[in-house]
Every structure is written in C-alpha cells, then in structure tokens.
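Pilot study result, target chain (263 residues):
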Amino acid sequence: MSGIVDPVIEHVVETGSTNSDLLARVHAAATSAATFAPLLLVAERQSAGRGRHGRSWHGAAGASLTCSLAWRFAGADLSGLSLAVGVALADALEPPPGAGRIGLKWPNDLWLLDGARDAGERPGRKLAGVLIETAPFGAGRVAIIGVGINVLPLAVTDAASGVAALAEIDPAATVARTLAIVAPALTVAMRRFEGTGFAAFADRFAARDLLRGREIVSDAGVAGVASGVDSDGALWLDAARGRVRVTSGEWRLRLALPSAAPC
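Predicted structure:
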C-alpha cells in the first residue's frame, strides 16, 4: 500500500498555486523515475489559487489555510475521493456528533449552516473548498488534493454563496491550529481510502449531505431533487425524465432558489 509514511510538510510564504506546484513536482518525478513520498505544501498566500471550473479561490495570509497534499495511490480509480476528503475535513473541524453546523455540498465544498435546513432556503455559507487533480505515476496515480479553509472572517465581494469562517464556531481558531487538526486527519483518511475507497466514508457523508432533498438545476437545464450519492460518490437526481446519475465535474449545478447559489 502506498502512503506508508506521514507526509513531509513544507511551508512557503507565497506561491501562485500549491496544486500547480505539486503537479509540477509529480511530473518531474515521474519523468526521472524518482521515488515519490507524500507531501503537504502549505502557503501563507496564493496569488492564483483555483477552484472547480476555473474559479478563483480567495484567501488572505493569517485568515485562510491554503495547502495541497500530494498522495500516491496504487490504483487509478479515485471515485469519491473529493467526498472522502470533505468528510475528513468536516469531522476534524467539528468532531461527531458535534452540533451539526458543518455540511457537505457535493462534490467538494464545506458549508457552515446558519440554521434550520429549510429545503426552500439557502442552507448556509461556504466555509472550505477542495480541488483534486491527478497525474499518472507508474501503475497508479498521484492525487493533488488542494484545500482552502476560511479560518477568520474574510470579505469576498464575488462569493454568491456567502463566506463563512471557522472562527464562528471555534473562537480560538487560527491557521496554525487548523493545520494541526486537519493534516493528521487527511493522512488517516488517505490510508483509509486506499483500503476501502469511498465506501468507508459514505455514512458520514450522508450525515452531512446538505443537498439531499433539495432541488438542483444544471447549466444544461436538467432539474431534479438530489437523493444522495452512490457507492462511487456520484450524485443521484430524481428528475422529470427519470433518475439521473451525475459524476463530479460533469455538470455545473446550483440550488434552485430565487437567487440561485452556484454549487
């Protein structure tokens, strides 16, 4: 099994993108037939942080944890990995049973819930995001798992979903303390995922699934009610044309609200 040692943790003051930096290292190692060990790269500031579909990730030094973990998997099937990472982060930041304030929004976001989960209202605000990119390495793949967590309040003018901060539920939260909490949790989760895939995380994802029971609309005009995820982490929509299976990255989705929030 790969990942038998804890990741080396490197810190940089500023970079463009920790994901891009680690992808470059992985490609260089694969080309030179070098060995590869897990690596967690932490940046105080990222000038070109990225989210899904080319969106920018906003962060600020001292207020945001921005990092990427490079982890080599022996196999090539990483279905459900972003959901497993979300579970690991949420359970580390709010250990179960917890107060139920952190929800998971398929496929890669953590939201801070503001109150009762009325299916007709916006459920909360974005707290953290995950961006996973992969590269071939030998017979397997290396996953680059980018994580951005809003630790202290941060003003982001173009965030349609609103912005939450970990300090709202943990007044003692700091970037360093948050890293100390999530780094070992990610390591444990990757080892677990290597052995069982998403199956080991499915129940915990379901407990925090904030899309289930809500109406979802895709950019392609397909609408339906989210009805959970399958064993591979794909989202099921109960649509007018029947049950639709949506895989991560296949569509852009949004909640069907009067002022729809991008998913």
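One observation from the pilot: The radius of gyration is 18 Å. A full batch analysis is planned for the follow-on phase.
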